């Protein structure tokens, strides 16, 4: 549920690993123990799994053939059986680390081999199932876009895609133009223009896509009237990823490097009116003041704190309460961006205190300093791709290499694809769906959704700590979940968008303007519940609390998340748990504050609310005990995602049990074995495979500050330690790291 500068104050809770704008052999252990013998063959190396059972052995659960025990190791099945045709898709013995006991660290046990065999490509800060699928999709999109170049009769939106792409790829033209495309924007924020009319300067930047200087404007459903969407004026204005980067002691080196980066960028700009060293000092000073006003990411998770609905006039009075009427005039600002206050209506100010103080700071700062600050954000906004190579390389050096640990720049076509998707994402999605989406997958996925929904209904009926009145409201909300799978019923109409081949910078500006105007059309208007907030080619999923809907784009319906060709245990351990994850978001510490219509209403009894928060605190404490390179995980920031991971797994497992029960089976039944693994074991190993990842240290530490999702290791080990069925599946002894005692387990959903 990513919420950064300029993002919606309604937190859409996503599965994780999103991309920017625009799992598996189980231990069928010790079925019985026989005396040690040296007369049996040694299992194949890829089939051996280390266990604290030296000197003991069992029979292969598939072929009933015993083998000799190996000191310090234990096998789950003989090599021929692991490699046989019985091995189901999604089970790969090479994923395991044979020397890690499951009870010590199940994540490393289940995907330790995968991590050894999948080093991070130099152009990525991390490598995981999401990025692997993203890479595959990027190749597919590239092929489709290139085909448009030779397609006869390429017109309309397809021609716009082809022309935009060709312009993105024309690096020579971008080099020839240098910084000339920035001239009109830099002129708009010159010291003279800022002094003359700062409101016009900020409006110009906002319309051009530089919408973080110093505020951000967007729309989303009114939290207390979800049928109506309203404008949201929010904190922004930072160059570093988050407010904490300006204050945390362990990030002083990042601040120093940022100052050096800003200096280098101004030197490259070669603006005679700006001294690079002095400019960098001014930028950091202003941003540090703004950062001090910012609400923290953890506080932003509280939907009540971020609901401050008022008129523009009332907000302006708060800004001017210290006297004087200079600075940013909001009524004129909204008129200049195309939404006069008489059309705008009331707005929400999610970070009210920050917005007021930022506007007061703008009034207090001199025009010369603000001009430097604005120029920096113009430069920063377009440096990643839209300017000559020297700017692109310097941007990469700091924001990717130093902040994330990425070693190499992606090839231009991959970066161009990200820009193309930011402007024409649904147009690409339409092409993607037509070529790659299997409609039968939609129906199969819908069946999974409904089984998990039924599991949630059952769970809600049996929760002992919830009163009947609260339970009734919870069941109503569950029954009203909207479900979207695959792609939108109505695609974005790109006909107003102007794209001219050979004019890359202008095309980018036109893209910003097109989407900004489209956003304004949704502001102070009935909520469009048909909209999608992810493209079909996005490998992710989300729950939207104001819509009370769960959404699964087409691209997530592929292995390891989902496949019609694998058995139910694999699908439910992956896609089923993803579905359960998104449903549980409707009842996490944020989602529980919205009712079945998507309105922020307290439908809990006071006693039930207190009991819920008490149970959530156990989850917070578990998360904060987890360390990332010595840094504790932020329990309250990651709370919602951690609740969703645990709840999703429990619901998906219950759904699998129900499915097998209809066949007279249980997940742990020996009859459910495939490749030596019971359905119960395959289920939990499938969840681990979803989160297989290697990640650079810098990126992992950055995500501790920024990401409401926990590290992938915690997303596997954290919830599994709370699940008794997992303990029995892998014979996890008590008083081991993967076994949380019943008294200390999280028990919510």
Unreliable spans: 1-7, 18-59, 64-76, 79-87
Q: What amount of the residues lies in strands?
A: 5-15%
Distance between the termini: 20 Å
Task: Summarize the amount of helix as a percent range.
Answer: 40-55%
- Rounded mean pLDDT is 89
Overall 3D geometry?
Answer: globular
| Radius of gyration from the alpha-carbon trace, in angstroms | 27 Å
Structural class: alpha+beta
Total DSSP E strands: 15
Tally the helices.
28
Largest sheet: 5 strands, mixed
List the helices and strands and how they pair.
Blueprint (H helix, E strand, L loop, with lengths): L12 E2 L33 E2 L24 E2 L3 H4 L23 H12 L8 E3 H22 L5 H14 L1 H7 L5 H6 L2 H6 L1 H10 L7 E8 L2 E11 L16 H18 L6 H18 L3 H4 L8 E2 L1 H8 L10 H7 L4 H4 L2 E2 L3 H13 L2 H16 L6 H16 L7 H25 L2 H24 L5 H12 L2 E5 L17 H19 L2 E2 L15 E3 L4 E5 L14 H18 L20 H19 L2 E2 L2 E2 L6 H23 L17 H12 L2 E3 L1 H10 L5 H9 L3 H6 L20
Parallel strand pairs: 6-8, 9-12
Antiparallel strand pairs: 1-11, 2-3, 4-15, 5-6, 6-10, 7-8, 11-12, 13-14
